[in-house]
């Protein structure tokens, strides 16, 4: 004869119950489980809310180069690994990757400038730095686009487009710097503050490029 087991009502295994009895047992003997379920649901809802997309910032700034042909200006701006020559506040600009993954140079010693190459730019004075990857380079349109892939400035997603445009009349040109990014994290940052900083940078860039274009070229053997 098989053994018959008897359980006190308050310890009756839930597997033996069903229907209304099962639901009643949970409500009567496991209130903590019900409370935990509600807490878990609230926490999950909070995590979903926290994962909402960040605010997006967009903007564009320009600076004029009177009397400087667009082609002459582009020759300097297009030099992806020479930002320290024309961008104020930047005194380090080094190649990290050339786009092929091996960091090598062409046979003539020139650094490869193709989509995928990465530069490291930095300011020794402030200690700020960023690594920027070239996404697109269009020589005919005088335009290149890059993304910040790492930095210590609080940037998440950041994509910028630099263009050299013909100025309407006068034979000069304009440098245009447009961007779109996630809201920058950190004290003192706002969309307006970022636009203002880029405005200062593009004006300083225009001045430097004008000086570079106007610099006399030394004639070998003269």
What are the main properties of this structure?
about 220 residues, alpha+beta, single chain, 7-stranded antiparallel sheet, globular, about 25% strand, disordered N terminus, disordered C terminus
Overall description:
This protein is of the alpha+beta class and 222 residues long. 30% of the residues lie in helices and 27% in strands. The protein is built from five helices and seven strands. A seven-stranded antiparallel sheet has the order 1-7-6-5-4-3-2. Helix 3 crosses helix 5. The longest helix is centred in the last third of the chain and has 24 residues. The protein is globular and about 75 Å long.
Class computed from helices, strands and strand pairing = alpha+beta
What percent of residues adopt helix (DSSP H or I)?
25-40%
Taking the alpha carbons of the first and last residues, their distance comes to: 119 Å
Largest sheet: 7 strands, antiparallel
Q: From N to C, what is the helix and strand string? A: HHEHHEEEEEEH
Strand order, sheet with most strands: 1-7-6-5-4-3-2
What is the count of DSSP helices, taking H or I runs of 4+ residues?
A: 5
Mean pLDDT: 80
DSSP strand content: 25-35%
What general outline do the C-alpha atoms trace? Answer: globular
Number of strands: 7
Radius of gyration: 31 Å
Low-confidence stretches: 1-17, 103-109, 218-222
């Amino acid at each position: 004869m098989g053994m018959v087991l008897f359980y006190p009502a308050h310890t009756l295994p839930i597997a033996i119950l069903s229907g209304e009895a099962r639901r009643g047992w949970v409500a009567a003997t496991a209130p903590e489980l019900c409370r935990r379920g509600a807490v878990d649901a609230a926490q999950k809802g909070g995590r979903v809310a926290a994962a909402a997309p960040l605010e997006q910032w967009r903007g564009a700034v320009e600076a004029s180069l009177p009397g400087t042909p667009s082609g002459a200006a582009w020759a300097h701006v297009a030099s992806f690994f020479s930002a320290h020559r024309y961008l104020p506040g930047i005194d380090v600009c080094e190649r990290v990757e050339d786009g092929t993954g091996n960091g090598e140079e062409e046979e003539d010693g020139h650094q490869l400038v193709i989509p995928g190459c990465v530069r490291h730019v930095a300011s020794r004075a402030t200690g700020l730095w960023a690594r920027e990857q070239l996404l697109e380079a269009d020589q005919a349109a005088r335009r290149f686009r890059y993304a910040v892939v790492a930095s210590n400035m609080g940037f998440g997603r950041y994509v910028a487009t630099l263009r050299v445009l013909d100025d309407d009349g006068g034979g000069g040109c304009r440098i245009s710097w447009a961007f779109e990014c996630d809201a920058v994290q950190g004290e003192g940052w706002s969309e307006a503050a970022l636009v203002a900083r880029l405005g200062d940078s593009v004006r300083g860039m225009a001045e430097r490029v004008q000086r570079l274009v106007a610099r006399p070229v030394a004639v070998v053997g003269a």
